[in-house]
What does this fold into?
Amino acid sequence: MAQQTLTLERFISLNQPAFPGGASVLTGLLSQIGLVGKYLAHDLRRAALLDMLGTTGTTNVQGETVKKLDEIANETFVRLLQQNGQVCALASEEMEQPIILPRSGAQGAYMVLFDPLDGSSNTDVNMPLGSIFSIVMKQRPDEVLSESDLVRKGTEQVAAGYLLFGASTMLVFTTGQGVHGFTLDPESGDYLLSHKAITIPARGKVYAANEGNYHKWPGGTQKYFDYLKVKDKATGRPYSGRYSGCLVADVHRILLGGGIYLYPGELDKPEGKLRLLYEANPLAWVVERAGGRASTGTMRILDVEAKQLHQRVPLIIGSMDDVLEAETFIQGRRM
It folds into this structure.
């Protein structure tokens, strides 16, 4: 019971995670991201009353229609993270170019990449939403930053996690030493430890995917989905479909209960849809540190060579055994 009352700040100070710069730096960064979550949770609760729903009439760098809440969430992340003295650069799915902050020397050693509002299609229908973040370090204290400095392999992350906005607001993160979840207490305004040392089951009973794209998938991917629906008591099939349209919500369900999430490559878009730096890398690190697996279908997500800030990648993520099995179909090793 005592563990459940630990605040985010108290938990970090007691556990002293191996974070470059120490616990105080991590506390400051995560507290600021948690503050973003508080602001967004407040906005989301009132969105329908304050003309925050619908679109802005513009498209982002990805060519996707921008929702009003996308813009609000991005502005909130930028405004609050700019106030943290440890942050030297920001990159977002919603911004064509990163923001380089005017700091030098040891101050401002961290760069934050984020998807400010995941699940935008849910904004107008009161369904779950999320935010995803990845934290990497400057390679040299005195380096003058450019866009290329933020384009890093997933193994170079020093912290990653997500905010989930649903029945409650949660902050889930890892610094490489376990995955921990904190729930926002609306009365005290604190994030309290609710899920310590999360471990994902080796196999689950659910899958999450946009099956409306079935006809776009290669044959091996189609065969895997067909396989999931065949009754077989020994392997726990058929699996149940659970797809919310919010990557964070679907991965969170699987992180706690097991299973697999898939947004695979398509015949005409083998590169997939999800962004490597803002979505796949941070979620892969969280899931791996909880004992799961994250793959493109042919290789480990965290080993993908990052080449562009807005690079896309297929994503198959979840329980270890489920992802390994999916890979055998996608790679044509299972008929």
Q: What stands out?
A: Residues 151 and 308 are 6 Å apart (CA to CA).
